[in-house]
Amino acid sequence: MNKLGYCIKIINENLGELLNETFVDAVQFKIFLKMVDASLHLDQNLSFFNGDNFLINIPFNLLRNSVVVTSTIEIDMSKKIKSKIEALVTN
């Protein structure tokens, strides 16, 4: 089973890739893009924590000098589920 994924990359000229994240849910992806846009417009750090396993803090001076690239990709859900199961079994 394949599903459409939404990717966001934030790339800094000096430091390289600051963020490379894929979202499966289009609504979450749009909310995250609005957070990035708001950080740039309000001259604030990009800070986010989902309460579980996703923490981001990119200072504004790095974010301002970075390129934000978005794209859509096709995700093979069977491989994703298999890798999650393997991770659970080994832990």
Q: How many helices in DSSP terms? A: 3
Domain module count? 1
Beta-strand percent range:
35-45%
Helix content: 25-40%
User: Major β-sheet, in short?
Assistant: 3 strands, antiparallel
Structural account:
The protein is α+β, with helices and mostly antiparallel strands and 91 residues long. The protein has one domain (2-90). It is built from 3 helices and 5 strands; from the N terminus they run ββαββαβα. It has helices spanning 26-41, 60-64, 77-90, and strands at 2-12, 16-23, 46-49, 55-58, 66-76. The strands form 2 sheets. A 3-stranded antiparallel sheet has the order 2-1-5. The relative contact order is 0.25.
Give the structure's gist in a few sentences.
By secondary structure, this protein is of the alpha+beta class.
Give the SSE layout.
Elements: E1 2-12, E2 16-23, H1 26-41, E3 46-49, E4 55-58, H2 60-64, E5 66-76, H3 77-90
Antiparallel strand pairs: 1-2, 1-5, 3-4
Structural features:
alpha+beta, globular, two-stranded antiparallel ribbon
